[in-house]
Amino acid sequence: MKIARYEPWSILNQLQREMDNLIRREGDTTTSPVSDWTPAVDIRETDSAYILRVDVPGVNPQDIDINMENNVLTISGKRDTETTDEKNGYKRVERVTGTFHRRFTLPDSIDSDHITAKTDNGVLEITLPKQAKVMPRKIAVQAPAPAANNTISTTSTSAAA
């Protein structure tokens, strides 16, 4: 006989977590309430660009829209629904389908004319280059040129008398 741990409050704890997530999501300006799912995003900054990596497995690249307007980057798209009836052997489906929508407010230092995007193995990578005027540059400190050998030479002349 197997002994199972009885947790009478587990369903209430789960409800509390779901309510907390819902409230937290309402204050998040990077998602939209019309999204069916929200892809995970990693943001990295280098010296020359910001790089966003967005997890979009199963999303056709033609179904992804990326727009930049008023320093707001918008990424939206959809993952199509597959037929998952029990006749095909499906007993449970956990992958989310439908539309997604993410927005990011960007700094003024982005060069919006040179933004690029590519996908590889279900990861969308968006490169947001920084404008040249705001990229850090190294300034060399110049020292005065070393002085020439300033030794005074004296020659003695002896007069023969």
From TrEMBL:
<dbReference type="InterPro" id="IPR002068">
    <property type="entry name" value="A-crystallin/Hsp20_dom"/>
</dbReference>
<feature type="domain" description="SHSP">
    <location>
        <begin position="32"/>
        <end position="144"/>
    </location>
</feature>
<protein>
    <submittedName>
        <fullName>Hsp20/alpha crystallin family protein</fullName>
    </submittedName>
</protein>
<dbReference type="InterPro" id="IPR008978">
    <property type="entry name" value="HSP20-like_chaperone"/>
</dbReference>
<dbReference type="Pfam" id="PF00011">
    <property type="entry name" value="HSP20"/>
</dbReference>
<comment type="similarity">
    <text>Belongs to the small heat shock protein (HSP20) family.</text>
</comment>
<feature type="domain" description="CS">
    <location>
        <begin position="36"/>
        <end position="139"/>
    </location>
</feature>
<dbReference type="InterPro" id="IPR007052">
    <property type="entry name" value="CS_dom"/>
</dbReference>
<dbReference type="InterPro" id="IPR031107">
    <property type="entry name" value="Small_HSP"/>
</dbReference>
